[in-house]
Specification:
With 153 residues, the protein is of the alpha+beta class. It has three helices and 13 strands. A four-stranded antiparallel sheet has the order 3-4-5-6, with no helix packed on it.
Length: 153
């Protein structure tokens, strides 16, 4: 079955000779589990996903360090005391590059522009800084939302 163009529910298949059948379970397009049953054998194999979300190379500590070292608080926003968290959304491709960079939640135009610049800097020519998400052990495109905090201190 499909829901909004994504697999949803149970999908069952059988070998033509009847020696094996399998069942995949999807939840709104995300593979949840697979069961395999062999004819004449009481054991059932159950696989669960080894999915991993996209991540910054080096983990959250390195991501926070990158943001700390590269974020430039716009002077006009700082002077006006404008603070807040810009939510920026982008897609991490299978090669770790970034695309579809957009503001998911705006705070102030200058802060939004700086958040976009920061994310674009993560996709610099020195090589990808992002590891792609994986689904069933294979790299996949995945959307990521990053909060960028601006606090005048």
């Amino acid at each position: 079955m499909y829901e909004k163009g994504r697999k949803h529910g149970r999908s069952v298949g059988r070998y033509a000779d009847g020696s094996c059948w399998y069942e995949d379970v999807y939840d709104r397009g995300v593979w949840q589990q697979q069961r395999i049953v062999f004819a004449g054998h009481p054991d059932t194999l159950t696989y669960t996903p080894t999915d991993k979300p996209a991540s910054f190379v080096g983990g959250l500590a390195w991501l926070n360090g990158f943001i700390r070292d590269n974020l430039n608080y716009p002077p006009d926003a700082r002077k006006a005391g404008i603070e807040g968290t810009v939510q920026i959304r982008f897609t991490v491709l299978v090669d770790g590059k970034l695309t579809d960079i957009e503001i998911a939640q705006s705070v102030y135009p200058a802060l939004d522009t700086e958040a976009v610049r920061l994310v674009k800097a993560m996709d610099a020519s020195r090589g990808p800084r992002w590891q792609p998400a994986t689904e069933q052990g294979r790299p996949v495109r995945r959307q990521y939302t990053l909060p960028v905090h601006f606090y005048a201190q």
